[in-house]
Amino acid sequence: MIRTVLIATASLFCLSATLTRASAQVAPSAQEAAAYRGLLAAAWRNDAKQVTTLIAAGAKTTAKDRRGRTAVHIAAHRSAYAAMQALATGGADIRAFDKDRYDAITIAAVKNDVRMLKLALKLGGDPKAVTSLYDGTALIAAAHLGHVGVVQTLIKAGAPLDHVNNLGWTALIEAVILGDGGKNHIACVKVLLAAGADRRIADRNGVTPLQHARRRRYGAMVKLLK
Q1: Which residue, 84, 165, 198, 218, shows the most beta carbons closer than 10 Å to its own?
Q2: Rounded distance, CA 75 to CA 157, Å?
Q3: pLDDT digits (tens, 9 = 90+) for 169-182
């Protein structure tokens, strides 16, 4: 029995490391940015005036780099707020997905960029979008990473509290099993519960968030989840 628990714990640790890397997404590298031209380059530089000029001259807002990033994705990765506003004004799709099925909202959520998140939401981003290779949501990603302000913003915007990704996990479950049990993840659990997240939803093995918290000896989370 002990050996089984140890194996399961080790497997979850490896999966957690893999998901953390995946959740970091892939921001443009310096080498990629150096090769950008036109609208992609303007977004990278946060040059709103140039973005407007290029779109007026016929530049396609759907242009992509090799990873399927449009200027919108680049602006989100770059925290280029002025460029993002100019792109939206010029008709760019704020809800577009890149090659890995990330949108501007999920990029901002993972980056813990509340300002960009609020801007993307204001410009028409969808807080309910199913994103990433895990069929998750921006809320799940934010809860996983302990980004409290992002979690609060997404909940206020109507993000689904109990969406289950293709790993069988909700935002509440991820805050427990992929978090570190520290103050930020505790706060995420508290915010999710206060908003009405269902603490009864278990993972594929029938283990609830409370049971996961107990196994990890996350006392503060246990108190919240009881």
Answers
A1: 84
A2: 21
A3: 999 999 999 999 99
CA dist., res. 148 & res. 133, Å (int) = 23
Cross-strand partners of 214: none
Closest to 45 measured CA to CA, from 37, 53, 185, 104: 37
User: With 80 as the cut, is the pLDDT of residue 212 above it?
Assistant: yes
Q: Contact at 8 Å (CB) between 109 and 69?
A: no
25-126 homologous superfamily: Ankyrin repeat-containing domain (1.25.40.20)
Over residues 89-107, the mean pLDDT reads 97
Topology of the domain comprising 127-226: 1.25.40
* Closest among 203, 91, 97, 192 to 147, alpha carbons compared: 192
Total residue count of the chain as it appears in this document: 226
Do the Cβ atoms of 140 and 167 come closer than 8 Å? no
The closest alpha carbon to 81, from 52, 120, 111, belongs to 120
pLDDT one-digit tens code per residue, 137-171: 999 999 999 999 999 999 999 999 999 999 999 99
Give me the amino acid identity at 190: K
pTM greater than 0.85 (yes/no):
yes
Q: Given this chain, do its domains 25-126 and 127-226 carry the same CATH topology? A: yes
3-state secondary structure of 164: coil
